[in-house]
Specification:
Blueprint: E1 30-37, H1 44-59, E2 68-76, H2 81-93, E3 99-104, H3 109-118, E4 122-124, E5 137-139, E6 152-154, H4 156-167, E7 176-182, H5 185-200, E8 204-212, H6 221-228, E9 238-242, H7 245-248, H8 251-257, E10 263-266, E11 281-285, H9 296-309, H10 317-336, H11 342-350, E12 352-356, E13 360-365, E14 375-381, E15 386-394, E16 397-399
Parallel strand pairs: 1-2, 1-3, 3-4, 4-5, 7-8, 7-9, 9-10, 10-11
Antiparallel strand pairs: 6-16, 11-14, 12-13, 14-15
Helix pairs in contact: 1-9, 1-10, 2-3, 4-5, 10-11
């Protein structure tokens, strides 16, 4: 599978841009990249829109050091790790791309390890373990899904909920929380991590289970009943739904129908197409959102996306994730300099900060090799529109086993 680096154009000669024709995917005037995503969650159209919107801005200025970024395709891994690796190999060995941008898939353990072995830079949303401790990985919010051997997380989601309570004259004292996730390794880790976040924020966790099947059950009533009685027979004040999209499309609505009155929150379904489904729900995003009309930086991003997708295009979370992936990649290219090689790119991001002030980040490398940017926004759906519930802000990271706050 893994060929010799030289046969793939990894090495470079010369010091000027024009002397790099033997660097895979790089010429004096162009850089070839491609996206890799799980289309069932990040469609090819959304991914291409976000990435090309950012690349078009840079290309219109003449590119990065005279090189325009050519977006070749968006490969679909079908949610299958084996297909993901095959697609990754094809992009590198056949299409000869310099980098894979954006990388948006949670089943990329093998492909991201392959990229590291082959010295292929990749940028995306760090929703896979191999965004952590990987010299060629550039996560726009860092290492956000670390393996159990790296017990780090941010205080962000819990802190955003508590900030909401405080804004309404309430504190965390006495507030109770329930955490539910899916019965798989990702869900089990997620329940532990989010439970720790809730406790760190001062909430009393009265329920923390990974008992929901990953394939949506036909009947959610057992899970609804256990959640609504988890606070000594009463409802908790907050329910964290830590599940993938299929279950998040169903469980929160069942809880609302059953009469849940507290804060119902997830981190998946901020999407203009889901606003009615998410009625009375709060969603945690790791970045600011287009609804923040007072944020000039965000509104410029909206305009850039509309310039490609049209004035009525729906700007989704996958579109934004692709945009930020591309933006971080461009920033890293500029830091790398004219002599663009995979090795020089890796050196550039080893000590690198990605940020759009008030919008995303800061994501600080090298700390981001083992930590995520502890920033985010809480948005709310009234059934017809999204609004900002807690504005974008940054908090802290901590070791969820020891509770110790970490330097970031």
């Amino acid at each position: 599978v893994i060929g010799a680096f030289a046969s793939m154009g990894i090495a470079a000669t010369g010091s000027g841009a024009g002397a790099q024709s033997n660097v895979r995917g790089v010429t004096a005037t162009s850089i070839n990249v491609a996206g890799l995503s799980q289309a069932s969650q990040f469609t090819a159209a959304e991914v291409k829109l976000g990435a090309t919107a950012r690349f078009q801005v840079e290309n219109s200025k003449g590119g990065v050091f005279g090189r325009k970024i050519n977006y070749v395709e968006t490969a679909d891994d079908q949610g299958d790790p084996t297909v993901d690796l095959t697609q990754a190999q094809r992009l590198v060995q056949q299409d000869q791309v310099f980098a894979v941008v954006p990388t948006l898939t949670p089943v990329a353990d093998q492909s991201l390890a392959f990229f590291a072995q082959q010295h292929v830079p990749f940028a995306g949303w760090g929703i896979d373990h191999n965004f952590c401790n990987n010299n060629y990985a550039l996560g726009f919010t860092g290492c956000i899904v670390p393996p159990p051997s790296i017990p780090t997380t941010g205080t962000t989601w819990g802190a955003l909920i508590v900030s909401f309570f405080k804004a309404h004259g309430q504190g965390a004292a006495g507030k109770t929380a329930a955490v539910i996730s899916e019965d798989n390794s990702v869900g089990q880790t997620g329940a532990v991590v989010i439970g720790a976040q809730a406790k760190k924020a001062g909430l009393k966790v009265v329920f923390q289970k990974s008992d929901l099947p990953p394939t949506p059950p036909g009947d959610y009533s057992p899970y609804v009943n256990e959640l609504l009685s988890s606070n000594g027979g009463k409802q908790p004040d907050v329910i964290f739904v830590v599940t993938s999209t299929p279950n998040t499309l169903k469980l929160p609505g069942a809880l609302v129908t059953a009469g849940f009155k507290g804060v119902l929150t997830n981190a998946v379904l901020y999407d203009p197409r889901a606003v009615s489904i998410m009625k009375n729900n709060s969603v945690f995003t790791q970045f600011d959102v287009p609804e923040d009309t007072a944020n000039a930086q965000m509104q410029q991003i909206v305009n850039n996306i509309k310039a490609v997708g049209g004035p009525n295009v729906q700007i989704t979370q996958p579109t934004l994730a692709a945009y930020f992936s591309a933006d971080a990649f461009v920033a890293a290219l500029k830091k790398t300099g004219k002599n663009l090689t995979p090795g020089n790119f890796a050196k550039a991001i080893a000590n690198f900060t990605y940020q759009i002030p008030g919008t995303i980040g800061p994501t600080k490398y090298p700390a981001a090799r083992t930590q995520g940017a502890p920033c985010g926004t809480l948005v709310y759906s009234d059934g017809t529109a999204w609004s900002i519930q807690t504005p974008f802000s940054c908090y802290q990271n901590f070791n969820y086993k020891t509770g110790k706050i970490l330097n970031y």
